[in-house]
Automatic annotation (TrEMBL):
Keywords carried by this UniProt record: Hydrolase, Protease
GO BP field: proteolysis
Keyword NADP in annotation: no
Official protein name in the record: Serine protease
Organism, scientific name: Planktothricoides sp. SpSt-374
Molecular functions (GO terms): peptidase activity
Lineage top rank: taxon: Bacteria
Amino acid sequence: MILMGINFEVFLSLVIYPLSFVLWAPETGGLTPPLPQQINLVNQPDFSLVTNDKGQMTSDKGQIAIRQFTVRLLGEQTAGSGVIVARYGHTYTVLTCAHVIAWHEGGGLQVVTHDGNTHIATRNPNFDLGNLDLAVVEFTSSEDYPTARINANNQNLALQQPVYVSGFPNSPPGGSKLEPGLASLMASYFLSSGDLLLVLDRPLERGYQIGLSNDVYIGMSGGPVLNSQGDLIAIIGRTKYAFGGVSAYRFADGTEPDPELLSQMESASWAIPIFCHLSFVTCPLTNDQ
């Protein structure tokens, strides 16, 4: 089933509210009838992420689950990451950053899953994500892959809470170069532990709004950000100390941060919270300290 003209809020409703399976229809001011078997979320691993006093993850089950729903996106000019968020029949939906696949509007995109299988992928243009640095990619497979869990009842982003980011650096954290070949590209998988440092009262350009202490490397853009309950809360897209100085941290409303805030922002990696459709409005995130 192809759904034309679905916007990001509808996409989130399909993923976050799988029990209701309803679409919001602005033109009628109400709900459309449920779409039977629209999204299948049966393979969602149930896990929490346990860490020791050094912030190191000790849950093997959690690490395995994250690895299985984190995917590599590859193309002639692309090497990034993504996360499987939904399934319909044999069609899987992957959420990633728009800048990861910006050069692949005409095709040539591949998704590589945790088992090393390569799948032809296409961008779904029917999701209107506005200016957000997010994109929806689809691939088909008869294999059973898990999907990340999105909990609509767990939207609180308390500062200093542990968060985890996974993805595929294009260069190993040590600074050496990857060997040519798919095996090397997949072996670079990296799971980063850290804390939530900043929750802005309004988004930066392209929807970035939460800052993390996690070390993130080029190639991890599009990967998942998870809380300690294992819930997907954001998509990573920017490393620390971005090029461009203050202009790299301009708010979506065109204003710039003061020097003190800028200093804090530069030392954080940045992600887009998935609970909000951000369009020059304040994202309704809680920020309990």
